[in-house]
Amino acid sequence: MLTSHLEVYQRSTSLHSASPLFRIPHVCPSSGRVEEWSTITYGQFERDVERYARHWARALRRKGIPRRSVIGLWLSGLTYVDCIHIYGISRAGYIPQMFSLRLPNPEVVYELLRKADARALVYDACFESVLSNCTLPVYQALQTSEIASVDEELERIAPIANENEVAFIFHTSGSTSGSPKLVPCSYRWLNTVVQKSNYISRPRNPGRQDVTVFIGSMSHIAQTFMFLGTLQHGSCVVQPTKLNYSSEELIDMIHRCGLNRLNAFGSWLGMHLKNSRQDAKLLSLLANLDDVVYSGLAISREDEQWAIKNGLKLRNLFGSTEIGGMLISGGHEKNPALLTPPSWNLVPIRTHFRQHRSSPPVLGRTLRADGHMHTGDLFQEVASGWYVSRGRDDDWIKSETSLRCDTKAIEDNARQMCPGLIAECVVVGSGRPSPVMFIEPTSDMDHDKLKKEIIRKTRQFHSRRYLHERITSPNMVVVVPRGTLPRTATKGNIRRKAVEEAFATELDRIFGRSI
């Protein structure tokens, strides 16, 4: 029997009606500090979702848009109102197509809406001025949960009749051929997410309510996955003031919201670990949490071992948009850093290395002719059933926000558009806010002029990409003398990771980090 997100929602809001589900920050405009964390219960969430569902069912019906149609949602995914938009439109019988604010180009959004055969677009108010060319009906997202009730009939939440029907449409977190790709998620796929999120989010102490925190935007899979785990266990989730919240705000969430489980992308957890080395109070609070789960980007081995040694209950959740959670650490008696797949296969590709593949429940369609979803992630089996990550078999990197970026596509475009300017180039930026391109020039042109000319010639290419994939400032181009970039001894190919390491100080300077 398959379980949908709406069945999870219905069961949880019925069982835990009076329990807190969200803690929402109210920020003082002058100081920027959180004055209060208000509480929204499961019961209030259910009432708001039902009210939103009736509102959108009526609005879309009046435009002649039938149920089971795809509706684009171009939202931040970071607020309570965004959450009730997503669940409300799904509850109304429609298929949400999720767009992130990090994809600000409306032309790319329109293309993806057409590919999904979407019938309407609900958008964040910040996009009001750029939607004049949209050919679909458009609706500005509601600003508050306090909307009038309308008398509109909703369908009963029933068991899934067709496991291959699409429940959600997400998008890859990086662009290929100038655009993200659709990731249509079937109810069969969603059922695996329900199961895995239940396992990952299982309370350490069933006698108390867990309190966790947003790991990312509901427009992406990570927080969608975690929220389903939150609902299933009657837990509570804190909405931070921003995703890269400070260690001070984390301490406040622990004290005033009762946070006992931390979910964070690796780059931001690394910041808290760095701060805890200088702050015994913060270290003690982190060590007393029931769970510290990080995902997206790996933290350094030094940070990982230091955290484990100091008593943090650290777990690395390895996943992707297409599959959700794949492997989890923390269960090996002698080495808690080792990863294991709870229910997936790792297929050997050569001696000592394995590439993760999934079986058909992942999506409404598979992505390879062999019936498997190939992620390109490499692992080494160091003990029977236990693995360590060994990177990828392609040229993709992950940004600070754990979203993906195709470095080779940027390099190829730069070489194509600037053949008389660039002799060689490489794009780096793993764990950074955006990519940086290092170039060896063809001539002795003034470096500032050269960088501006490269930005001018590649501007159109970058305008179609996510914000975290773009190189749009001369500050993100570094010119070095010919022959400077590290190369392999045999073929002379530039070694991307070696460039990251050799120029770490320069990258820190570019992004304003302490050295």
From TrEMBL:
UniProt-recorded Gene Ontology molecular function terms: medium-chain fatty acid-CoA ligase activity
AMP-dependent synthetase/ligase domain span: 35-329
Gene Ontology process terms (BP): fatty acid metabolic process
One of the Pfam families matching this protein, by short name: AMP-binding
InterPro entries, A to Z: AMP-bd_C_sf (IPR045851), AMP-dep_synth/lig_dom (IPR000873), ANL_N_sf (IPR042099)
Chain ranges passing through the membrane: none
SUPFAM superfamilies recorded: Acetyl-CoA synthetase-like
Cross-referenced PANTHER family: ACYL-COA SYNTHETASE, ACYL-COA SYNTHETASE FAMILY MEMBER 3
Family label: Belongs to the ATP-dependent AMP-binding enzyme family.
Entry protein name: AMP-dependent synthetase/ligase domain-containing protein
Species of provenance: Candolleomyces eurysporus
Source taxonomy: Eukaryota, Fungi, Dikarya, Basidiomycota, Agaricomycotina
